Amino acid sequence: MRKRISAAAGLAALALTATACAGGGTSTPKADAGAGTKSGGTSSSSAGGTELAVPTGPVTITFEEAMTIGTLKPAMDKLVSDFQAKYPNITVKLQGEPDYATMYTKEKAEVQAGNAPTIGQAYESWASYFQSSGVLSPISELAGTDSPAAMSTFYKGIQDDLKLPDGKTWMWPFNKSVLILFYNADLMAKDGQSEPKTWDDYASVMKAVSKDGVTGSTIDPGSATAAAFGTQWFEILARANGAALYDKDGTPHLNDPNVVKALQYMKDLKDAGALATGKNYPGETALGAQKGVFDISSAAGYGFENKTVGGKFKLNITALPAGPAGAVNELTGTNIVVFKSASADQKAAAWAFLKFITSPEEQAGWAATSGYLPVTSQALSQPALQDFVAKNPYETAAVSELDTAFALPGFSWIFKCQGYEATAIQEALENGKQPSDALNTAQSACAAAKAQG
Amino acid sequence: MAGASRAGLYARRALAVFIGAAFVFPFYWTVVISLGRPGEFSNFPPVLVPHWDWSNWSRAWHSAPWLRLFGNTVLIASGTVLLCLVTSLLAGFAFGVLRFPGRKFLTLLVLAVLMMPGTVLIIPDYVLANDLHLLNTYWIQIIPWGASVFGIFLVRQFFLTMPAEILDAAALDGASRLRFLRSIGVPMVRPALVIIAINVFLGSWNSFLWPVIMTDSNMESSSTVQPIEVGLSTFANAEGTDFPGLAAAVTFTTLPVMVFFLLLQRQFIRGALSAAGGVRG
Amino acid sequence: MTTATEARQAAAAPSRPRRRGAARDFRATRWGWAYSAPAVLVFLAFVIVPTGYTFYVSLWKWNALNPALSKFKGLGNYRRLWDSTQPAFLSSLWHSLYFTGAMVLGGTALSLALALLLQRGGALLNGSRLAIFLPHATPVIATSMIWTWVFNAKFGLADWVLHSLHLPTSQWLQSSSSAMPAVVVYSLWHEVGFTTVVFLGGLAMLSDELSEAARADGCSAWQEFWHVTWHQLKPVTVFVVAITAITSLQAFTQFYQLANGGPAYATTTLSYLVYQEAFVFSDTGYGAALAVVLFAVTVFFTLVRRRTASGESHALV
Fold it and tell me: Where is the composition biased (Low complexity) (chain C) (predicted)?
């Protein structure tokens, strides 16, 4: 009997929130339409002035995600079950996809068909495409403000990464990481080499260890349609040389002398037989097969690397070497976006979910299981993560880079430009093209893509 | 002279065996990798003798509901074949035997279907499937593939080469067209139907991008409607560097279709042979 | 066969006018529409209407997520094709033609040679026949996974074979110059079984008398093949060429799985480019324009082929 009453109360509450928020829901898009050019900071903050309350009636939200593999799946499932334990009236339905390309295609198809998920994983450039098509809700619509309190606890690099070039917060952090250096400590010791601290060190160590069928490192340069860790390494090298790569408004500088220098550096390694290229995590494969010494990969790849190595030798992990412009790292992984088509209740539930998964406790468990980095330093004091850090000292160094790690500006066409970068790397490393020529081509193609919009 | 031709015969056989072995070798190598010890796959020269380490198999087997996926594939492929046979038979009969206004136009329309690149149709088809509430069902994997240009034209071809007397006799007997199709047409074009069935079955087994887009991947759920190739791809993305496990999965997902082929090889080959006959017009 | 049928019809015609009339009634019927309807409806819903939509979209800078934001461009997308550099449209077209040409020439020659080798054999040759057909019966996804390992430049079988034969090894899929040949090798391996069996079917129907006559006339084996066998196999060859050309122009999965269109666009064919622009880059209008061009190319080749192969007016393509 009591059950029935509470259910009825829940329904009434649901109806209330639904009507209360419907007004906000219709006014916000109008504000957006105007905001496109005028940025309309005042109107949006006043329009969405109140934070959505956690709904009390039953709500189901859908989450399009790609955490379907390895240790990522249990980590994801844990987030959901913890959340549902705390909010029994909210069901989070995961729509897992096998990989990011499929997920993006799925998300676009669903938006077109009018059945977008409530929330979905998205890279910055995807978010930009969704936003420019008017299918996203800004965070301010959920939080009542463009910079919710929780945001200030995130690392600086993460905070910056949540905004699109219009200056508004459109994303919430999810699986974030930076690149780190994995290496075979036994092979290094055998050759009497020590951990490289600068990229110049790295080049000389790579050359020294490349002999007897061993190649210093094998990278995936990426392809025209997808960046890979090799592409990001190139971007990091360029930034470490002091190049800007892209201005805030997206203007590319891909043929800047310091970018050319980065590609020349890679080409020299390749020509010296210290660098090879491959596909499908070739660095990890080579490292595991003891045919490679180094692998530059995401911190979140730790579980995979460890499994591939399988205890055959001592796997060491360290922060990336530094360049003339200091230590530079790049954010990897995606954020979460909220689709506009979701009902007010779903948005309210989604907001509760987003805040929940970025709370220090959940971030600690998530980071320790998935290998992704916690987005807030408060997670580091949690016991779950402290255990992990004790066993994996690299975590501290990696996390500290989240404050400074850069992300490419969030324009939909940046995705294409990364493809041009990857093509330039392939042209230089595999087809013997001069780095400056290859990058001139990339620069003009990227400028054309920017003009095309 | 006889010695020379005998030597020639042996040489021919040896060459045939060598070529056959070369075609099968990649499969053999996959099996070897799947039964190898960890890390062995990256040896050079490659390891060519299996070590009978079944742990890769059990690891791969337990990571996806393979039986369910396999069942889905068989169901989808059979449904598609059935539908295709009916549509091909009817349309092939119409185009090959019947004379009606607009026949030429329809023939050209169907021919044009063959030339449209499939990848670009997926998005409009997805929107349509959503409107029809067919997403994430078996139907969306069956109906759109339930007509085959190749099938229609093959059946048409058989009817075109049919001696006119047969039609005359049927017409004289006053047989209805449907009865004619059932009692004379079907037996006559049976070889064409066999090759259509086989081709459509393989095509269905082969489809990848379509089911990925049209269905939700929900790998551990017992209600997934996805076919086995999508499961394999998911597994490959998940365990991208676990070559032995992936080799095991490739082996046991490909094995059923190989057994199917070996059981029906006579029909396969006869079907392909009659395709040659059919095009001789 | 056609001529024989026609001859019979001609002979039968004067004596049986009534029958022909009945047959004409049997044939001429508006029900033809009903018989074609199931197939035509499927095509209409899932291919033809979406194709029309594709033509329409190709005239716009199309925002797939929010069509209201689309901008009309007229032929702008088609002009962009010519101006594109990364990758250049013409180079993608060339890759399509390169792949199709290699598959048509290589595939036809190889399957004809294999059919000649394997015809009229005992159990042993039958076994080889099965072995060659087997890859065709297995899915492209699964087998291209195998072949990415075969082509692995570090531990792959392909390099091992070259290495054992003391030939220079290759980077295969990692290098622009060898990536397309590698995809061709894979595709031949996968496709040649079917066309070989089709040729075997053609060979089985050859008339022995002509060959014997040729041999009696003192023709060499090569002359016999060229003037008698090959000549009679012409319709089969036309079929094989047509089927191979169309499937090759539209081949997608192996490019996706083996090479992702790379390295440096070396395996970006028109068909892959359609996918890349429309799906990965969400440039729907531009992708649609590419699809229309690919469609036009396919139609063009089909027409050319039909023109040049006269007397095959009712062949499949």
Answer: 1-15
Q: How far is A242 from chain B (nearest CA, A)?
A: 35
Q: How confident is the model at residue B217 (pLDDT cuts 50, 70, 90)?
A: low
Contacts of B240 in chain A (CB under 8 A): 280-281
Partner residue opposite B241 with nearest CB, options A112, A113, A285: A285
Q: Which one-letter amino acid corresponds to residue A373? A: L
Residues of B in Cβ contact (< 8 Å) with A106: 213
In chain C, which residues have their Cβ closer than 8 Å to the Cβ of A111?
A: 65
* A258 belongs to a structural domain: yes
* Confidence band, pLDDT 50/70/90 cuts, at residue B274: low
Q: How far apart are CA B167 and CA C23, in angstroms?
A: 6
pLDDT over threshold 80, residue C3 = no
- Domain C89-316 sits in CATH at 1.10.3720.10
Give me the pLDDT at residue A32, please: 36
pLDDT at C183: 95
The amino acid occupying position C257 is Q
Lowest mean pLDDT among A61-65, A90-94, C88-92: C88-92
The answer to whether C282 faces chain A, any CB pair under 8 Å, is yes
Query: The dihedral of CA A303, A309, A315, A320: what is its sign?
Result: negative
Q: Quote the pTM value.
A: 0.83
A32-67 pLDDT, tens digit per residue, is 333 333 333 333 444 447 889 999 899 999 999 988
Three-state DSSP class for residue C245: helix
Q: Which residue of A has its CA nearest to B126?
A: A109
Torsion, CA B123, CA B128, CA B132, CA B138, rounded to 10? -40
Q: Is B97 on the interface with C (CB under 8 A)?
A: yes
Separation of alpha carbons C262 and C260, rounded Å: 5
The angle, 0 to 180 degrees and rounded to 10, between the axes of the packed helices C31-43 and B66-96 is 140
**Structural domain boundaries, residue A206:** 179-330+413-452
The verdict on A316 and A351 lying in the same domain is no
One DSSP character per residue, B38-69 reads: TTGGG-SSPP-S----THHHHHHHTTS-HHHH
- Give the residue on C whose Cα is nearest the Cα of B19: C128
Are residues A351 and A380 both part of a single domain? Answer: yes
Please tell me the distance from the alpha carbon of residue B75 to that of residue B83, in angstroms, as a whole number: 12
The chains in contact with chain C, meaning 3 or more Cβ pairs closer than 8 Å, are: A, B
| Span B176-188, average pLDDT | 83
Q: How confident is the model at residue B280 (pLDDT cuts 50, 70, 90)?
A: very low
Residues A416, A250: Cα–Cα separation, whole Å: 12
Q: pLDDT of A141-159, one tens digit each?
A: 999 999 999 999 999 999 9
Residue A364 vs residues A370, A377, A387: alpha-carbon distances, Å? 10, 10, 10
Domain presence at residue A407: no
A-interface mutation test, from B237, B239, B242, most A Cβ less than 10 A away: B237
Best of A63, A102, A284 to mutate (most B CBs within 10 Å, chain B):
A102
Query: CB-based contacts of C17: which residues, under 8 Å, 6+ apart?
Result: none
Q: Is A405 within a domain?
A: no
Would you call A279 and C171 a contact, using CB atoms and an 8 Å cutoff? no
Q: Which chains, if any, share at least 3 CB pairs under 8 A with chain A?
A: B, C
Say yes or no: A113 contacts chain B, CB-CB below 8 A: yes
CB contact under 8 A, A221 and C263: yes
**Residue to substitute from C154, C155, C277, interface A, most A β-carbons within 10 A:** C154
Residue of C nearest to B247 (CA): C146
Domain boundaries, chain C: 89-316
Question: Strand A59-65 relative to strand A90-96: parallel, antiparallel, unpaired?
Answer: parallel
Which one-letter DSSP state was computed for residue C256? I
Nearest to C142 among B23, B209, B253 (CB): B253
